[in-house]
Design goal:
Layout lengths: L5 E5 L3 E6 L5 E6 L1 H11 L3 E8 L3 H12 L2 E8 L7 E6 L5 E6 L14 H8 L4 E5 H6 L2 H16 L3 E5 L10 H14 L2 E3 L2 H6 L6 H7 L7 E5 L5 E3 L2 E3 L13 H14 L4 H16 L15
Parallel strand pairs: 1-4, 1-8, 2-6, 4-5, 8-9, 9-10, 10-11
Antiparallel strand pairs: 2-3, 6-7, 11-12, 12-13
Length: 302
């Protein structure tokens, strides 16, 4: 793939409330695909977000924050009668998180049903790499889900590639069978698959990492990396452990950070193993700080 490949991430980006000191709350932003987009942009990649937001001040602030990080928002279209989604996140003493969502009427759910949607799709179809997740599919109505898979086909027809993350959030689906059906359809469209073993087990579809990789088509020409949390990842037929044990401050965004580190390294020509280690390093930095996308600091491995 050429230098400075055009990467488009497509999905929902939301306002994030995270608990601060005492009873205070901090307002940031988050969402699986935008987290990965920011990591890619910080690493020097050319990244744009395709989504929908409202025309309210909060939506304008979100755009400004992403643009300040280097993410192109030209493909974020306006749903004038909707607002961005919102979630609150709490972490326990071990760094594990719990979420509370307000997203049923979020603007992103209409990203394929607005007057500007066709133009957004036509531009996104020119991407060298299109990245989305099972959460992207979860928030869309069936016609939007089909439109996204059609867009994947257009990208591949033009010589681009598809990366798909299997983020499974049960509360976003009517049942696991529906989630599995759309996940399987997305897998057939992807070139790079980034499932998490815990999600695959929760969906009732995997016993271990090797089994999950096989179900995602690792032996069928797809590049599959199964994330194993603190045990590293399974890729290229081997388990690749994290370089060193790390104290977890906040586990939110860990998989998104891994994806950003992995995809950046692969686009730069790294081997699968080298890219996996880059993903581990970025995820390790991320979980050592609060928030799904912590502010960059001197220790950030970009």
């Amino acid at each position: 793939m050429a230098d400075r490949a055009t990467i488009t991430v497509i999905g929902e980006a939301m306002l994030e409330l995270s608990r601060g000191e005492g009873d205070s709350w901090n307002l940031r932003y988050g969402g699986d695909v935008i987290n990965t987009a920011v990591h890619l942009a910080r690493s020097g990649d050319s990244v744009r977000l395709a989504s929908a937001l409202g025309t309210d001040p909060m939506s304008a602030q979100l755009r400004a924050q992403w643009e300040a990080e280097g993410v192109d928002t030209a493909l974020v279209i306006a749903a004038r009668d909707r607002l961005p989604g919102l979630y609150a996140i709490e972490t326990d003493a071990s760094g594990e998180r719990s979420f509370h969502y307000w997203r049923s009427e979020a603007a992103a759910r209409r990203m394929f049903a607005l007057p500007e949607s066709a133009a957004m799709m036509a531009e996104a179809a020119k991407s060298d790499l299109l990245y989305f997740s099972l959460i992207t599919l979860a928030i869309l109505p069936d016609e939007g889900r089909q439109a996204l898979l059609d867009l994947c086909a257009q990208v591949r027809d033009k010589g681009g590639r598809i990366a798909f993350d299997g983020n499974y959030r049960p509360r976003l689906w009517e049942d696991a069978a529906t989630a599995r059906r759309w996940r399987d359809r997305a897998i057939t469209c992807c070139d790079i698959g980034l499932p998490t073993l815990a999600d695959e087990v929760e969906m009732g579809e995997a016993d271990d990492a090797r089994n999950a990789a096989a179900r995602w088509g690792a032996g069928e020409g797809r590049e599959i990396v199964v994330k194993l949390g603190g045990d590293g990842c399974f890729a290229g037929g081997e388990t690749i452990p994290i370089p060193q044990a790390l104290a977890v401050v906040d586990s939110s965004g860990a998989g998104d950070a891994f994806n950003g580190g992995y995809l950046h390294a692969r686009l730069a020509g790294a081997s699968v193993r080298e890219a996996a280690l880059a993903g581990h390093r970025l995820a390790g930095w991320n979980i050592g700080r609060r928030g799904a996308i912590p502010p960059r600091d001197a220790e950030a491995p970009y």
